[in-house]
Amino acid sequence: MPGIRELLVGHVLPGALCLLLLAAGAWLARRGRRTDAIAPIAIGVSFTIGYYLLHPVRSFPPRDQGGWLVFFTPALALIAAADSVVRVPLKIRAAIVEILAATVALLLLVPLSNPSVAASRSAVAVVSLIIWVTWISLERLSLRRGPREMSVVLLLIAVANAVVIGTSGSVIYGLQAGTLVAVTVALLVACLVFRNQTIHRGVIFLFVFIWLGLLINGHFWSNVTMRDAAVLLVAPLLGWLGEIPVLRGDRWWNVMVRVGLVAAPLAILIVVVGIQFRKEMEEFL
Fold first, then answer.
1. For 236-250, what is the mean pLDDT?
2. Element (H or E) spanning 221, and its range?
3. Is the pTM of the predicted complex or chain greater than 0.85?
4. What is the phi/psi pair of residue 230, to 5°?
5. CA 119 to CA 114: how far, in whole Å?
């Protein structure tokens, strides 16, 4: 079971650091500085520190597949920062993301130290496509939603992801997924407090790769079921139902319904896996 140290270094520290960096970005923005790159850098740095402190990786390539996120995240954060600053046509961005998705899927699913347990080529192709589709969906959706609403959606995804992974049989994977929750909480607080905080492009890009990197590890190298993974992937897509004309607009009930469309399946999933986990613990004891 996690102790105080794990909660402090893996959750409190990265969350506080992320919020501090986002606050610094807001302060600079009020003084006319361009700060689009700060949010993905804040998320990437904070997540990497918390992730590493929970499970230090001292070899390259890492001995277990979860260690790849320590190397992926800083590089992806730099790419996300560039994506937030440099305006590149969507077609080019989409091609770059697909190449990155294929690379991440390949390294996460094909252990260099033990190729005999590697996933099939078709699995790698499907996973890379899922990463790309998830990115383009949330990327386009973020352009139609305010930063506060979008940050709530991202937090719901992160929380459900952490609960599912944490109850799947791997405590360390669950704690590392909790690190994403911590930095996403910081992002939500920043959106609520600082009016100039935005969520699009680089932030969405980085969030998707971290979230799905955690989920890939949880499914292929722990015990996250296909059903649970599917619910986590489909739930954010339900946000597009908010494009129905009657649900558009910034009225409070419009926002509540749109968030609820994503929250409902995730809440049901949390309850289901919670009940299953309790039964398993009772049988174990």
1. 87
2. none
3. yes
4. -65, -40
5. 11
